[in-house]
Design a protein that fits this description.
- With 680 residues, the protein is an alpha+beta fold.
- The N and C termini lie far apart (59 Å).
- It has five domains: 59 residues, Helix Hairpins (Orthogonal Bundle); 232 residues, 2-Layer Sandwich (D-amino Acid Aminotransferase, Chain A, domain 1), CATH 3.30.470; 93 residues, Beta Barrel (OB fold (Dihydrolipoamide Acetyltransferase, E2P)); 146 residues, DNA polymerase, domain 1 (Orthogonal Bundle), CATH 1.10.150; 70 residues, Rossmann fold.
- Strands 12, 13, 14, 15, 16, 17 and 18 form a seven-stranded antiparallel beta sheet that branches. A five-stranded mixed beta sheet has the order 2-11-10-3-9. A four-stranded antiparallel beta sheet has the order 5-4-7-8.
- Helices cover 37% and strands 20% of the residues.
- It contains 24 helices and 22 strands.
- The structure holds 2-(butylsulfanyl)adenosine.
- The site of 2-(butylsulfanyl)adenosine has 16 residues, from strand 3, strand 8 and strand 11.
Length: 680
């Protein structure tokens, strides 16, 4: 290297190191402390500058660089690795007397004159994980597994933004080796959004935020994990080189200093009465929390006393989980009816004898589709187990009893219950064809238009949309922009304040971002990724409407089938006049600057075997979410999508450790990336 070159490299290295420090710090302020110090745009600028430097000098790319959170190559399987120290379980009870006996034993063990101090904290219902840091850098993350060994999921854990890639060392030096234990969780609000999308895309619903957190951690492709909103809360040190801690409170303090997020409301108490009070308070607040807890954990604070008291093969004797009542109950299906969604899909719903499940009354549960109904064989009059695991949409788990003269299996309707149009079948689904005349579909489209990824209009939920439609205030998407507060105030549920707030919220969206506007229109195939590409490429709604199929196909990822679907939608006379009508209300979508390509690459897929849809359609769906396709398997291949009767491509893919997805998994993956595969 010339002197000039060395100098340039040295400068780049210094700058990159500084940028990394800054980015780590800002990620910490944002995700751990929830006190951002700079705007998202400023953060992006720093991030892009670092990307640039690392692109010019790939040697600078270190595993703890903030640019390396997402992007690891998918794996074919997980390695099983041993834990640094056993990840024990907890002894648990729901009985206050047992808690008293636990306290008695601890007191006896401590001996006369020694009062125990306990740390009490929420028992988080997530996926337990070990994180290992060597010289302050995250080197390994392992699922709990059987407690002695688990699966190595480092690439996935790195994608969680609150996970430090390197320890903060401002207040405490990094030990040579540190293994911490924590819980990966998905917030209930994020879970609801995620699960609804997942089910809409044809996935089996996840039963709880915990299942979806655990499922997300165990994805072979870390891009999938990255696409889910996860958080990590750390509550224990499993192993450390040279500790010197005297109490659990010290441990928690150190964990915080190193930059981890710890559970809320950790408290130090001395008596069973304090614990009961804490437990009761948390139980009462449980419904208002955005994360799932299934009890509280009580731990003796004094670490040397812990050593003396010891552990059994599976749990420590110095800790106890004091659990809450479970959130499953038994009730009866009074009736099964159907619900019509925005795209006309008709879904069966169970009306239940209202029952209190973990503090919330449950009277309805979606049964998802015909298949699920058949598989669980749910019928009117059956006694069933229901659960509500953080989901607004409670689930019917199973039938536990039924009358002798049981109702006949539920038949899906032949006519739309909302508008009477004859339904048609599309794979396992039944749909109402009456897009413009069906009140139920309009209601669904209004809710969709107001949803977070579309125009994000606060207060425009199911109930409000139902009222707007049934009262005849809104007969099309465009008419939503005409609603006046006085009209709303005539109806129950609206006072002057709420009516004005809703109307303001709607009117404040007169200059939406083009990509959000495109989503709001509900164009088939146009998910977040395609909407962003269309917006970036064409820059205006007019240009998109005028584009021919061929012009649309100039966008990498839009193939002939997708371009047909989009142009067919936009050219359809009624859709077109609806868009005209919306624009005539003074709505002016604005295109934002296109984002860097580095951040959007779904990987290269090769398709093989007999797929349930034409291969060209599957390939188009993949390209539409930012993927590339190829006909040959090579080291550059990220995924093999395998249909039935596969041959040499599959063998080669196996040899090269390429991730192999079946069709169903492929559909789910596309959905996660914001696209859609038309499944027969
Ligand atoms: S302490 C040796 N604290 O509950 C002590 N565990 O049923 C080990 N959990 O597998 C655990 N929140 O994953 C502890 N605040 C907390 C916890 C917690 C959730 C999980 C943990 C464990 C399970 C035991």
């Amino acid at each position: 290297m010339t002197d000039q070159g060395t100098l340039e490299f040295d400068n780049a290295r210094t700058e990159a190191e500084k940028l990394r420090e800054e980015l780590h710090h800002h990620a910490y302020s944002y995700y751990v402390e929830a006190r951002p110090e700079i705007s998202d745009t400023e953060y992006d600028q720093l991030f892009r500058r670092l990307l640039e430097l690392e692109k010019a000098h790939p040697e600078l790319r270190s595993p703890d660089s903030p640019t390396q959170r997402v992007g690891a190559k998918p794996q074919n399987k997980f390695e099983t690795v041993g834990h640094t120290a056993p990840m024990l379980s907890l002894d648990s009870t729901q009985d206050a007397d047992e808690l008293r006996r636990f306290d008695d034993k601890i007191r006896k063990a401590l001996g006369e004159g020694h009062e125990p101090t306990y740390l009490i904290e929420p028992k988080l219902d997530g996926a337990s994980i070990e994180l290992v840091y060597e010289d302050g850098v995250l080197t390994r993350a392992v699922t709990r597994g059987n407690g002695r060994e688990g699966e190595e999921v480092t690439d996935n854990i790195r994608t969680i933004p609150s996970v430090p890639l390197r320890l903060r060392t401002q207040d405490r030096a990094a030990p040579e080796l540190l293994a911490v234990r924590g819980e990966v969780i998905m917030y209930i609000s994020d879970f609801r959004v995620f699960n609804a999308r997942w089910v809409e895309a044809g996935g089996e619903p996840y039963a709880s935020p915990r299942n979806s957190a655990a499922g997300s951690v165990r994805q072979l492709d870390s891009h999938v994990t990255a696409s889910r909103e996860l958080d990590l809360l750390v509550y224990d040190i499993l192993a450390i080189e040279g500790s010197g801690f005297k109490s659990d409170a010290d441990v928690i303090g150190a964990i915080q200093q190193w930059g981890f997020k710890v559970p809320d409301r950790i408290q130090s108490v001395g008596t069973v009465e304090d614990i009961l009070e804490y437990h009761a308070e948390f139980a009462a607040d449980r419904e208002d929390l955005d994360y799932e807890i299934d009890g509280v954990v009580i731990k003796l604070d004094d670490l040397s006393a812990r050593l003396a008291i010891g552990v059994t093969s599976h749990h420590p004797r110095w800790a106890l989980a004091f659990k809450f009542e479970p959130r499953q109950e038994v009730t009866r299906i009074d009736k099964i009816e159907v619900n019509v969604g925005r795209t006309g899909v008709i879904t069966p719903v169970a009306l239940l004898d209202p029952v209190l499940v973990g503090g919330v009354t449950v009277s309805r549960a979606s049964l998802h589709n015909r298949e699920e109904l058949r598989r669980k064989d749910l019928r009117e009059g059956d006694t069933v187990r229901v659960q509500r695991a953080g989901d607004v949409i409670p689930q019917v788990v199973e039938v536990i009893a039924h009358e002798k003269d049981r109702a006949r299996p539920f038949e899906m309707p032949t006519e739309c219950p909302a508008c009477g149009a004859p339904v048609y079948e599309e794979g396992p689904r039944i749909k109402c064809p009456n897009r413009f005349g069906c009140s139920a579909q309009l209601q669904g489209r209004i809710v969709h238009l107001g949803s977070r990824s579309a125009l994000n209009i606060e207060g425009l939920g199911e109930e409000t949309a139902a009222l707007l439609v049934s009262e005849g205030l809104v007969g099309s998407l465009a008419e939503l922009f005409d609603v006046r507060p006085e009209q709303l105030m005539e109806h129950e549920g609206f006072a002057e304040k709420s009516a004005t707030a809703l109307v303001e919220a709607i009117r404040s969206k007169k200059a939406p971002e083009l990509q959000h506007f495109l989503i709001a229109l509900g164009i088939p195939e146009v998910g977040a990724a395609v909407a962003r590409d269309l917006s970036g490429h064409f820059g205006s709604i007019e240009a998109i409407r005028e584009a021919t199929a061929e012009e649309l196909e100039q966008i990498d990822g839009i193939g002939p089938r997708m371009s047909q679907v989009i142009t067919a939608f936009l050219e359809d006379e009624r859709n077109s006049s609806e868009i005209d009508a919306i624009l005539a209300r003074g709505i002016e979508p604005v295109a934002s600057a296109p984002v860097g390509e580095d951040l959007m690459d779904a990987g290269t897929a090769v398709f093989t075997g007999t797929l349930p849809i034409p291969r060209a359609s599957a390939e188009a769906a993949w390209r539409a979410v930012g993927g590339r396709t190829s006909n040959t398997v090579s080291t550059k291949t990220d995924f093999l999508i395998a249909g039935d009767n596969t041959g040499s491509k599959r063998e080669k893919a196996e040899r090269l450790d390429v991730v192999i997805l079946n069709f169903r998994e492929f559909v789910a993956k596309v959905a996660l990336l914001g696209g859609e595969v038309d499944v027969p």
